[in-house]
Amino acid sequence: MDELTEKSIGFNFNETNLIDNTILFFYSLSLISGTIQLSMFTYYISGSLLVFTRLAMCGCAFILSLIFKRFNLKSIVGISFSIVGIIVFLKTRNLDYLLFAMTLTGLKDIPVKRVVKLTFIITLVSLLILVLLSITGIIPNLGYPRNGRIRNSFGTTYPLVLSAYLFYLAVSVSILWPKKTFVTLSIMTLLMILCNTYTGSRNDTFSIALLILIIVLKKYLKLAKILLKTLIPIFVVVGIVFSIFLTKLIPFGTNLFVIINKLLSDRLILQDTLVNNYGIKLFGQVIVQNGNGGYEGQNSLMQYFYIDNSYAASLYVGGLLSFCFIVGICAYRCYSLIKKDFVIVGLILFIVIINGMVESSFINTSLNTIIPILLSDPKLFLSNEKLNLVE
Predict the structure, then answer these.
(1) Origin, by domain of life (predicted)?
(2) CB of 332 within 8 A of CB of 74?
């Protein structure tokens, strides 16, 4: 089935396979470099080297895709987004949006199952290595106390980095093996327990629980296809905008504000600071952030300020155009997947989008392993996978 799908792109099997493998090779190097950058190895290896490697590898995949793959409307969207990303970088020195654009454009014509399998393997192996090295003391395992418990990072720079990896592993499992219910649910339950026990991330734990619920109810969800096709894209747009400007609707200091802020681990206060102190620019702006991650984050003299909402970051840091590209692509992808009967994948992506409302990982190409399939043609979701998802 892989062969039939690849032939439909316009090349013979061997030629297409070589191009696809080369693009995936470049993407793998970018992913590995990003993982190193988010680990404690970042203090032993030149940060600029890692950034350059990520940019160069994504750039190579991007160029190969434009030269050898079909040029269509999605290519134009990807190029336009990449141009915006370049301008944002020149203005803010932030590469996230350029990497985001080049990644989704470069891998848009690669069979989805191959991409997801690759990201799953690289993420799993990388995490196992980091955990092993941190347990043996070769690299630090930074611990963060909260509510009487220690949240562990196990070789990553912060527990939420680790929890994001666990969440996206669960996403990959739910896409790759949706029909093997017992095995899939067992793996995802284990990931959820690990996430809650060792990182203390309520948001990522809850997100994995939602993924489990989708797998459990998959046989019934296809019955709501028509309703979901209409409601999900609307909720994506409205939900994202609402999550950004929530503090404009709930007055600061009210009981409701205090309750929601507590549930979101003080994120609402930080969001209120962002919305009330910064304007929206077309190509973004420099906003100095200091999180708890790494050695810098443990410096109590540095004031904590970090934008956890991925879409708030894309709007205020990446700018209005970056925000519109990201939200538009996400809404369209959910709609097109559900319309083409890939109901479960559409709902899985929907959960990933919701997770981005409370976590910063959505716009990070080293963490969000779903970015490469955001512009993929539904035909690249293999036929046998399609049967698994809707039956």
Answers:
(1) Bacteria
(2) no
Query: What phi and psi values does residue 39 have, to the nearest 5 degrees?
Result: -110, 175
Q: Which two tokens stand for residue 150?
A: 């220690």
User: How many CA atoms lie within 13 Å of 22's alpha carbon, on the beta-carbon side?
Assistant: 16
Q: For 16-38, what is the HEC assignment? A: HHHHHHHHHHHHHHHHHHHHHHC
Residue whose pair of structure tokens reads 């039939």 in the numeric block? 4
Among 271, 370, 321, 300, residue whose Cα is nearest residue 87: 321
At 237 the pLDDT is 96
Closest CA relative to residue 289, chosen from 308, 264, 276: 308
- How much is the mean pLDDT over the chain? 88
For residue 7, pLDDT beyond 50: no
Element (H, E) at 203: helix 202-216
Residue 279 predicted with pLDDT over 80? yes
Helix (H, G, I), strand (E, B) or coil at 72: coil
352, 214 in Cβ contact below 8 A? no
CA–CA gap between residue 326 and residue 267 (Å, rounded) = 22
Contact 273, 288 (CB under 8 A): no
Which residue type sits at 293?
Answer: G
Distance CA 326, CA 317 (A): 13
Query: Residue 102 class from Cβ within 10 Å (0-12 exposed, 13-18 middle, 19+ buried)?
Result: buried
For 143, phi then psi, to 5°, come to -110, 140
For residue 97, CA distances in Å to 121, 135, 271, 310, 357 come to 25, 34, 20, 11, 17
Distance (Å, rounded) from C-alpha 104 to C-alpha 89? 17
Structure tokens belonging to residue 42: 């970042």
Contacts of 177 (CB under 8 A, 6+ apart): 183, 184
Burial class (CB in 10 A: 0-12, 13-18, 19+), 279: exposed
89 touches 133 (CB < 8 A): no
What is the spatial distance between Cα 349 and Cα 171, in angstroms, rounded to a whole number?
Answer: 8
- Which pair of structure tokens corresponds to residue 214? 């989708």
* Residue 126 and residue 10 in contact, taking contact as beta carbons nearer than 8 Å: no
Q: How confident is the model at residue 222 (pLDDT cuts 50, 70, 90)?
A: confident
